[in-house]
Amino acid sequence: MSTLKGRNVLKLLDFTSEEIQYLLEEALKLKQNPLSNVLHGKTLAMIFEKSSTRTRVSFEVGMLQLGGHALALSSKELQLGRGETIADTARVLSRYVDAILLRTTDHNRVKELAEYATVPVINGLCDLYHPCQALADLLTIYELKGKFSGVKVVYVGDGNNVAHSLMVGCAKVGAHFTIAAPEGYEPNESILKQAKEIAGETGGKVELIHNPDEAVQDADIIYTDVWVSMGQEEETEARMKAFKPFQVNQSLLAKAKRDASFLHCLPAARGLEVTDEVMDGSQSAVFLQAENRLHAQKAILKEIMA
Ligand code: CP
Ligand code: NVA
Predict the structure, then answer these.
(1) For residue 134, how far is its CA from the centre of ligand 1 (angstroms)?
(2) Is the CB of 229 under 6 A from ligand 2?
(3) Which of the listed residues 53, 125, 268, 279 has the most CB atoms within 10 Å of its CB?
(4) pTM
(5) How far is the CA of 191 from the centre of ligand 2 (A)?
(6) What CATH number does the domain containing 35 carry?
(7) Interface TM-score (ipTM) > 0.85
(8) Is the CB of 226 under 6 A from ligand 1?
(9) Total number of domains constituting the chain
(10) Ligand 2, atom 1, residue with closest C-alpha
(11) Do 260 and 220 contact (CB within 8 A), yes or no?
């Protein structure tokens, strides 16, 4: 495997199965030995055009634990918010920092930042992908189930950024991924097609269906995300209606394997896509999953920056 040094992390589709497995192994090692100085003197600039708790804090703490430093910047405070271009921002920040993270709307903004930056760019969530989340999700699934092959991951809900990255991630590691989405809220066709092709090569399986009860049969993992993502607030009414039958509650969870685990990228809208009973129940691993953002992202930072 060639080195990951200098690589952008825009989407998991850009990484081979071997590279993803390597990052997961590295994450497990960092979880055992969290502190080092491998990024001594290195700085990560993080630009947030949307809210964040986990991404912001885990990257900042991760940089610190690796001996480096992170700057959390809101686009509103940057000149970016007053119209300075992404390209100019990329060229300027590249002269100060060693990597740039962007959380934004359109995937093209992350691509443009990467095109003009001379340092690695990390996608901290955009409308299409959330690769850092998916890497932490894979780490969590591996810790819970001890393998990927034959593990059935069922995502119930919106075919959104989190679903796309998880789907690609599961395909890359040879897991079985089923998404149950309402009509009109299916995942992006091109990403679904690519994920199916990858699964064909890794021994995994990717499928889309519309019935949540059917989807969760034999599930090892049940995963959901919010019905209304950041920036979709105007669609709230229509989404509430479409997603109502897709709530992860105790009755849906009971249709999965007895030892199935529940995952959610968080933040959760409790009482909507998931009930308190499931979120706080014995099968929920959502806080382990949130913790794993830190370990997985440290693996990324170490490999692309050190
Ligand atoms: N899951 C996730 O990305 O959380 P934040 O929006 O809090 O960063
Ligand atoms: N799909 C959600 C994920 C938040 C971490 C959103 O984009 O708002």
Answers:
(1) 12
(2) yes
(3) 125
(4) 0.98
(5) 18
(6) 3.40.50.1370
(7) yes
(8) no
(9) 2
(10) 229
(11) yes
